[in-house]
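Listing S7. Sequence submitted for prediction.
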Amino acid sequence: MAQSERVKAIYREGTLQLLEPVNLPEGVEVWVELKGVPQPGTETATLRRAIQLGPTYPTRPQSPETLERLIGLVAVGGDALADSEALYDADRH
């Protein structure tokens, strides 16, 4: 049976140092999944950079009237496939 355990580690000088003990038999092979934790202050810098770069996808300004027509277009809990077909199928009434 595969054992799964989550522990914190810190990366220093090219190696990962575990911050807590682990209960593993000697010589066992393990998989390591890395999830970086932002250092204090870096989240703000990342957010500022994203704002400076702008949207990931091209955008086009729209008038409030155009956007108002979109309100309630797709009902909560609706059928997304049927709704998209209704929008893009010219033969549908």
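Caption to Listing S7: primary sequence and predicted structure tokens for the chain studied. The first helix runs from residue 42 to 53. The CA atoms of residues 6 and 86 lie 47 Å apart.
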